Amino acid sequence: MTESWRQPRRILMAALGGLTVFYLLAPTLVIVPMSFTEAEILSFPPQGFSLQWYEHMLTDTQWSTSIVNSLIVAVLTAAVATVLGTLAALGLSRGRFPGRSLVNGLVLSPLIVPVVVIAIGMFGLFVQWKISGSVLGLVLAHTALALPFVVVNVGTSLQTMDRNLELAAANLGANPRRSFMHITLPIILPGVVAGAIFAFITSWDEVVTAIFLTTARFRTLPVEMWEQVRQVVDPTVAAVSTTLLVVTTGLLLLLVFVRRQAPA
Amino acid sequence: MTTADEARSRTWPSLVGGRPRVNRWSVLALPAVVFLVAVFLIPLLAMTLRSVNDPPGAGLSNYQQFFTQGAYVRVLTNTFWIALLATVSCLVIGYPFAYLMTIVSGRVAGLLLIAVLLPFWSSLLVRTFAWQVLLRDTGVINRILLDLGVISEPLTLIRTTLGVILGMSHILLPFMVLPIYAVMRRIDPEFSRAAANLGASPATAFLRIFVPLSLPGVLAGCLLVFVLALGFYITPALLGGLKDQMISQLIVQQIQQRLDWGFGTAMGVLLVAITLAFLFAASRAVRLQDVFGSGIGED
Amino acid sequence: MTAEAMTPTRPAAGERPALVLRALTKHFGSAVAVDGIDLDVRPGEFLTLLGPSGSGKTTTLRMVAGFMAPTSGSIEIDGSDMTRVPPHRRDVGMVFQNYALFPHMTAAENVAFPLRMRRRPGAEIKKRVGEALDLVKLGSFGDRYPRQLSGGQQQRIALARAVVFEPRLLLMDEPLGALDRKLRESLQLEIIRVSRELGATVLYVTHDQEEALVMSDRIAIFSMGRIEQLGSGADLYDRPASLFVADFIGESNILRGRYEVDGGAGGWMTRDETRWRVGAASAGRSDVASGAAAALVVRPERMRVLADGATPDGLNTADATVDEVLYLGPDIKYQLALPWGQRISIREPRELDARELARGERVRIGWKVEDGLLVADPASA
């Protein structure tokens, strides 16, 4: 980039950039102050300051049970997806077998297929298997959706790891199992943790498959919100949105922190 | 003989003359494969079967039903149209933004990246809801414009195509910015300097050198945005009007309300087929790993 | 065809070799990386595998370490057959080119790792780690992480880690390649000192011939998967067995021509109108057939610019034109052109009162007959 055209271009670019950042961040941020309104309806600017809608979210049985349900499903999803995904990443990275690229494609395919189609497919079959409307069904669905994120994260960690380290470990007397426990696993741990966090977030925010795989008695937070948003919009929805945002942002910051601590 | 050959023989032993060995690590991939086949592939296959079997012996009648009714075909064309609009708007907003990210300092670029990634990871529902709040007749935008006296009556922003595009672009922007940025980053700044030295004006250098070099990223981004936009459900449902209906909404309607599984699944199969067709066609032009490999784990 | 007759490759009777490679071969599909290597390494010896990239030296080292299985042949370490033994049971020390220090462990934990793998008691580990760190003069650096250490320090930690469990054999894969010149030189001496103190047998891989000459007891020159010549540095330098070796080690002037035997002792090298005498000793060592294309190798420091008019006995001579004059401190180096255009170089100590040659000047150069080494010329002109 040459010097001569810096000034006017720079200002224009900066303005466009600022506008785009505003476009990206403003909509979601606008919700946050609105959740603290004293009024009965969502309004802008918000009137007064009150935590009543957060209270309502936590005390109203429908909302609070859905929060708990979301937590349970997300934690279970993170656990299962992390285990399956880490194993798969290891198998794909260190394994040699025919059809490896096919398996790679299979693991990434949940990202490509439109989620509505995944939802109705699973719904149709889970109903037959009698697991629709249960924690199990939803965890299975969310795990399938979260799996690609775990595999990519752990896979990247494995790829960037210096292969010589495993050779050195073997040379120094570690059999394959001990080499994995003492050397490989600690080094890829940030990738595993990152995958787990993304898996949690994926499940925590997921709405489309949840719409199909939940019932009036068993709902997750996003589904509860979906139902509310299309009818009466009371500020509780804003409080819920803010909560969802805070949890996700918090986890992402945790992720950045974990990355910084990576030894390699 | 060379380490490259060594590496090759380890990866594709059959290619370099050795026997294709299956080593012990391979078995670790098995649980995930079994899981995905059972929970992901089989439901999709069952769905495909159902599309030709519900009602029993339906054959292709569900598909015929779709293509012979103008209303349904309109939904399909509208889906393409909206996806196209979303792609164009993401490109218009995203290309300059990606370029900006390459010319600022590393620190600022990192902040811009966070600005792109943070909404990327927030709930789609929350973001769509936020747009709803913004665009309603009694929403934030109208409120501000009315208070400022710019307008005397609220603008109809919600339940319009504009509303849908605003919402979808907001959500899809990272998928455009990240691939373009990834490619732009790798363009050697020396090229522009060389062009200047050879007599090209800055604008010419940009148009004739930089833009063509950034095209692979542009293609990857457009492809990704378009394919994802085709399958959108939440956003058009909340922000769009009746004439903006997209095919996924139709599918949900058929399954949830009409309980017409045959028809619903047929449309589902159609949507997947179209998505795969686009991906396949584009895989001839663009390396798919550029599309799906970026964004996750980029510091 | 090698000059192994020069230097005994089998150890003296009663002395078991530390490492024996027999017909060691490695194929990658149809490509042959290592082509039937035979090598005996004496206990306590520092033997270097030297050669250009792709010559098979690193592949050989990796097979000795156990990271790669040979296609055929055998590897014997200290008398036991290790050909099929996995790497974690071979008990050899290895220093990698990029150090391969575990980033999530401190220097001390890195050095302790092999002892932990052998389940040594904690107190013993502590003591031996301390000793190993002291050995490489990094006694107080145990708590640092690899990323907090300089390249040279990391390499010394890698060395400490490789010797702490007292392996019978120490392997080094171009360990100094990533370091700058001064650091390399000081670490070369460090490595020699450590290995002497431990009495270790060392198999060292490098492509840097100066490094090989400085450090080794013997050098095996690799080319295209085979050992071209095995011997001490002096053997290789003074009596190269082939053109490849002559060219690879040190600088050489290569005069090509046709060789004719002369009676029983020595012969003649003919090129166009010029004829040079080949000494009996040199002719006897090489196996160039009479009438075959050959080359005479003369080191630059063995050639002299002759004083005007002098034609002493026992010298081969040639006419040349001075091309460049290079001052190298204590020496002076001339680059000259021979009548048929070939460039050669002469290196002499600078005489303070000697006349300096000018560019373009015509001179006579000469060398002692016995300084001309006869080798075969594979690319027959």
Task: Give a structural overview.
- The complex is a heterotrimer of chains A (264), B (299) and C (381).
- With 264 residues, chain A is mainly α.
- Chain A has a single domain (63-260), classed as Orthogonal Bundle (MetI-like fold).
- Chain A has 11 helices and no strands.
- Chain A has helices at residues 6-34, 52-59, 61-94, 100-108, 115-128, 135-160, 163-171, 176-205, 208-213, 221-229, 236-260.
- In chain A, α2 (52-59) packs across α3, α3 (61-94) crosses α10 and α6 packs across α8.
- The radius of gyration of chain A is 23 Å and the shape is globular.
- Chain B has 299 residues and is mainly alpha-helical.
- Chain B has a single domain (70-292), classed as MetI-like fold.
- Chain B is built from 14 helices and no strands.
- With 381 residues, chain C is α+β, with helices and mostly antiparallel strands.
- Chain C has helices spanning 57-65, 107-117, 122-135, 151-163, 181-198, 209-215, 233-238, 243-248, 280-285; strands at 19-28, 31-41, 46-50, 72-77, 80-81, 92-95, 169-173, 201-206, 218-223, 226-231, 253-261, 267-271, 274-278, 293-298, 303-306, 315-328, 331-337, 343-349, 362-368, 373-376.
- A 6-stranded mixed beta sheet of chain C has the order 6-7-8-3-9-10, sandwiched between helices. Chain C has a 5-stranded antiparallel beta sheet with strand order 13-12-11-14-20.
- In chain C, a hairpin with a 2-residue loop joins β12 and β13 (274-278).
- The longest helix of chain C is centred in the middle third of the chain and has 18 residues, at 181-198.
- Chain C is elongated.
- Chain C starts with 18 loop residues before the first strand and ends in a 5-residue tail after the last strand.
- In chain C, 41% of the residues are buried.
